[in-house]
Amino acid sequence: MEEQWRLQSQPKNWNRLHHLFKKFGQCNDEEIANGTSYYVGQLFLKQRAHLDALNRLVDADKRFGEFVLRHVDATLSDGELRAILDLSKSHCPAGESELCRSVAIRADSSLNDQRR
Question: Where in the chain are the domains?
């Protein structure tokens, strides 16, 4: 299963990540989890203009929302977490404030985890 995840990984958008979650979400060992955190971080940084797509997916699939938030974690770099925190506080698209607030809380918590 891990090999299948790697072969189909590197999601380029939130819809693709959701597809991978539905197919492989039960596989969340350490290696897959760390890779997923990297991809989630990259999507937040590169697909921030498309948070509406993420919000629609989260509204329809709460488990996916929990999955995404769980992967905004201390395995991301300090710089990535700070950028995600800044984007979620200062550049949140209209209508996505609840999602942005949740992301900001997770990013801030993960930064605190890194300091420990």
Answer: 2-115
